[in-house]
Amino acid sequence: MIIAIDGPAASGKGTLAQRIGGHFGYVWLDTGLLYRAVARDALAAGADLEDGAACARAAVALDAGTLGDPALRTTAIGEAASVVAKHPAVRAALLDFQRQFARTPPGAVLDGRDIGTVICPDADVKIFVTADVEVRARRRYEEYARRGENVTYDEVLEIIRQRDARDASRAAAPLKQAPDAVLLDTTGMDIETAFQAALNIIAHVTIGRSEAR
Ligand code: C5P
């Protein structure tokens, strides 16, 4: 069973994917961490993030054991990740790892931007999670405030707007809803409500598929 959860920055897709994985006993991968880790390693090597070949070298050498690094969670690394993520060679270098992870029995939940469109086009369930940009900025701002990051709400809003624009406009695997994904708009929902809505979508899609057989 493969569940693909895509959506823009701070849509809540990571929290949802983690909870869905826990609920069904499936493994979970936050694929944004892969791009964040490549950005971290490229910067540490002194690479220019606009240099696709240098970033791809960092992607090929990536040690998946370092994905728990708390330094990956900062705003600056998120920004840098969305720059390295536009290079097709970086995306190609991360493809096999994600596809193999997706095949972990008895099931896997992957969240990102291109899981339903590129990484797992045959995923059993695809959910595209979104929310109004102001709501996403508010959630992300509160997360940063809890962690003591020194950033204002307006700055977070601006960063998220820019990140969405960059992720949606790039040529390689842009952020977009797969035609067969179900849209889940979590504006006005708390995490519990969003989780129940996601479980309903999964039940609908999987029951619908077994009835069609
Ligand atoms: O989801 P997160 O904010 O951690 O992702 C950081 C960046 O990594 C995104 O802005 C996006 O550019 C990139 N990314 C991607 N494809 C994915 C996951 C993340 O391009 N599947």
What is the CATH C level class, in words? Alpha Beta
Number of strands: 5
Identify the CATH homologous superfamily.
P-loop containing nucleotide triphosphate hydrolases
Bound molecules: cytidine-5'-monophosphate
Uncertain regions spanning at least 5 consecutive residues: none
Strand order of the largest sheet: 2-3-1-4-5
Q: Given the C-alpha coordinates, what overall shape results?
A: globular
Measured as a percent range, the helix fraction is: 55-70%
**Radius of gyration based on Cα positions:** 17 Å
Integer count of domains? 1
Order of helices and strands: EHEHHHHEHEHHEH
Key phrases:
213 residues, alpha/beta, Rossmann fold, 5-stranded parallel sheet, 9 helices, 5 strands, 55% helix, binds cytidine-5'-monophosphate
Spell out the blueprint of helices and strands.
Layout: E1 2-6, H1 13-24, E2 27-30, H2 32-44, H3 52-60, H4 75-84, H5 88-102, E3 108-112, H6 115-119, E4 125-130, H7 133-147, H8 153-169, E5 182-185, H9 191-212
Parallel strand pairs: 1-3, 1-4, 2-3, 4-5
Bound molecules: cytidine-5'-monophosphate.
Cytidine-5'-monophosphate is lined by residues 9, 31-32, 35-36, 78, 81-82, 85, 112-114, 163, 167.
